[in-house]
Amino acid sequence: MTGVDLYWIPLGAGRGGQCVRGSGRVYEAISATRRRRRPLDLYHSALVVHLDGHAVAIEMAPVWSVRVPERGVVAEGPVGSPSLGRSRWFRYEVRRWRDGTIPDLASAVDGPRRLTTDVATAREVLALVPSFPAATWGRDELRTGEMWNSNSLTSWLLARSGLDTTDLHPPEGGRAPGWQAGLVVAGRGPSLGAPPTRGRVGSRTPGFPFRGGTTEDGVRRAQDDGDQPRPPGT
User: Fold this and answer.
1) If we measure between CA atoms, which residue out of 105, 155, 91, 86 comes closest to residue 125?
2) Which of 5-9, 33-37, 160-164, 208-212 has the lowest mean pLDDT?
3) Labelling 150: which of 52, 97, 179, 181 has CA 20 to 30 A away?
4) Model's pTM, two decimal places?
5) DSSP string for 141-207
6) Burial of 101 (0-12, 13-18, 19+ CB in 10 A)
7) With 0-12 CB in 10 A as exposed, 13-18 as middle and 19+ as buried, what is 212?
């Protein structure tokens, strides 16, 4: 079975998500008041790519959210501000995790949505993950008019791989902050809109990208040392 599946997960779903849900509601209430609209439910998105007998979980999450050593980490970036990103408590990681898990996936609404069954497109989505611009989570460093977050990863990957995102949107009554930011940056092309290499690790791997573990090993060593990973050659 080959396919690319999109999931919409309510913000703060699952056990231990009370703080995330609460802060999300405050954020959305402020946003709705400023824009003179009613508050909406907030969602974050995730992808699962089925290829060659494996299910590959693609997600952007805090580095401390999962304690499994081998979890397919291909990039890291800061949360809140570049300076805060020196601490692992304020860093996120981008995962391309073969046969991995996505927390709270069971809470997904109206999903999964199968976006394609094309083998070449599925491979392209996987190959693009390490190239994702690791800008600061929660900021608009790339000047898109919207914050950069996990939804930006999903929309960027889909747009850059050539999939049609026109009709992709959260369940009725909801919204996904950061989604449009990913589309805007994807539209600038592969070399436009990327932030400085701060916080990035790894590079694009041609084909089905599961050869060796040097990228993930580097991230893990950097976490153990209490420092941010640096791109090769710096």
Assistant:
1) 155
2) 208-212
3) 52
4) 0.76
5) TT-SSS--SHHHHHHHHHHHTT---TT--PSTTEE-TTHHHHHHHHHT-TTSS---STT------SS
6) middle
7) exposed
DSSP 3-state of 48: strand
Distances (CA, A) of 91 to 143, 145, 183, 202: 21, 22, 23, 16
Query: Mean pLDDT in the chain?
Result: 78
Question: Which residue, 201, 203, 184, 202, is CA-closest to 192?
Answer: 184
Q: Which long-range contacts (CB under 8 A, 24 or more apart) does 109-114 make?
A: 109/8, 109/9, 109/10, 109/43, 109/171, 109/174, 110/8, 110/171, 111/5, 111/6, 111/7, 111/8, 112/5, 112/6, 112/7, 112/48, 113/5, 113/6, 113/7, 113/168, 114/3, 114/4, 114/5
Distance between CA 27 and CA 179 in Å, rounded?
16
DSSP at 68 = -
Confidence of residue 117 (pLDDT cuts 50, 70, 90): very high
Residue 14 pLDDT more than 60? no
Over residues 182-206, the pLDDT tens digits come to: 999 999 977 555 444 434 433 333 3
The DSSP call for residue 212 is: -
Question: pLDDT band at residue 38, thresholds of 50, 70 and 90?
Answer: confident
Signed CA dihedral, 209, 119, 110, 26: sign only? positive
Q: How many helices (H) and strands (E) does the chain have?
A: 5, 7
Residue 118 has pLDDT above 70, yes or no: yes
